[in-house]
Design a protein that fits this description.
single chain, alpha/beta, Urease, subunit C, domain 1, 2 domains, 7-stranded mixed β-sheet, globular
Length: about 375
């Protein structure tokens, strides 16, 4: 396949007039617009991207569900539904998140995810679903005081044996584990498994010293920055300050227009520059009408794009990642910066950037063609035009 006449988003976070050449589900080369293409157009599908930006498919490393389904439904039907909805909305690789639930439920979720991933791997090229690249364990290793929409009944202290257990049950799909660093055994757990999984500080009351100790021990990620953690106070900057002082730490940001105000979004990108990871944190109501739904076994009411528990606590979002990226741009974030935050940054944060996240020879041929004027998706490509 050849994609020509578009402005291609490069590894340097710039747009260049290039042609992209692919074979099967892999990118083979990038050539300048004036270069004779290395294959015969008569034998190769050609996509004219005139008037479009060509960007990598997006990667969401923190979302719970969509289209009426939740990852924690623990069914193949649910996994397929969220993977299909994600792909149709520009997210070509997914790392869905669990909730704080009974360990046996989390066991089943890991096994179901492994079964879907195995099924997907047997296909030469899967054009029905987003690639299932990992699991984000958001809980049960969290603080009761900062539990948010998580179920307090199932909260546990970090447990290395459970980490190993879930990694084995999932066939290595557990890529990201959220935890509160102030909990007993948090630091030893991070130190022991930091080379096997990415640890993310989350749902925590940690002060700067505690958070920095966890980051120095090997944690390298922060879950939904600002939410379910102490504020960025001028005397003790907490998790936010510790993450800012740790150059290899990525921070998640929900740009749905509700969780984080526009001035704070702009300030965050200035503070963390190329370390922001846009996430949707979407729940099952995403893509569905207002009404009553569930998240982690708790009832959630959705009214006008806002999902809340009965006590008013925000319970995830109902905004797909692509729209979050566009919202970031509307808030004043440069387009190139917002694209990187929804493509290469999440992939780097969970260690899958060898295959995903940028338009680079050898990586997956996952692309979105965006209208240059509206930034709407014109085409989705996952090995072939969908």
């Amino acid at each position: 396949m050849i994609i020509k006449n578009g402005l291609v988003f490069t590894e340097e976070n710039t747009f260049l007039p290039l042609s992209v050449v692919t074979q099967g589900d892999k990118i083979t080369s990038l050539v300048s617009g004036n270069t004779v293409l290395p294959v015969s157009e008569n034998d190769t599908p050609v996509i004219d991207a005139a008037g479009c930006y060509v960007i990598p498919g997006l990667t969401d490393v923190h979302f719970h569900g969509c289209d009426g389904y939740d990852f924690c439904d623990n069914s193949m039907e649910a996994v397929k539904a969220i993977a299909a909805f994600s792909l149709k909305n520009g997210v070509t690789s997914i790392c869905p998140a669990t909730m704080t639930m009974p360990t046996e439920t989390l066991d089943g979720i890991c096994q179901t995810a492994a079964a879907f991933s195995s099924e997907q791997a047997q296909k030469h090229m899967d054009t029905d679903f987003a690639d299932f690249v990992g699991i984000h364990m958001e809980g049960p290793f969290i603080s009761r005081e900062k539990k948010g929409a998580q179920n307090e009944a199932y909260i546990l202290s970090p447990d290395g044996e459970l980490v190993e257990h879930w990694m084995a049950l999932s066939d290595g799909l557990v890529k990201l584990i959220s935890l509160a660093p102030e909990l007993p055994n948090a630091l030893p757990c991070i130190e022991k498994y930091k080379d096997k999984v990415t640890f993310s500080l989350a749902h925590t009351g940690a002060d700067y010293a505690t958070a920095k100790a966890a980051l120095d021990a090997g944690a390298s990620h922060v879950t939904h920055l600002y939410n379910a953690m102490p504020p960025f106070h001028h005397r003790d900057s907490g998790v936010i300050g510790a993450a800012s002082d740790t150059p290899d730490c990525y921070v998640e940001l929900i740009c749905d227009g509700l969780h984080i105000s526009a001035p704070v979004v702009r300030a965050t990108f200035r503070l963390f520059e190329n370390r922001v990871v846009l996430i949707s944190d979407s729940m099952r109501a995403t893509g569905k009408p207002d009404g009553t739904y569930t998240l982690g076994g708790q009832e959630v009411t959705v009214v006008k794009n806002k999902a809340t528990l009965a006590d008013g606590t925000i319970a995830g979002s109902v905004t797909p990642l692509f729209q979050c990226m566009k919202t970031a741009v509307s808030m004043g974030i440069p387009l190139e910066t917002a694209i990187a935050a929804a493509t290469i940054n999440p992939c780097r944060s969970i260690g899958i950037d060898n295959l995903y996240g940028s338009i680079t020879p050898g990586k997956k041929a996952h692309f979105l063609l965006l209208d240059k004027e509206t930034l709407d998706i014109r085409h989705i490509i996952k090995g072939q035009l969908l």
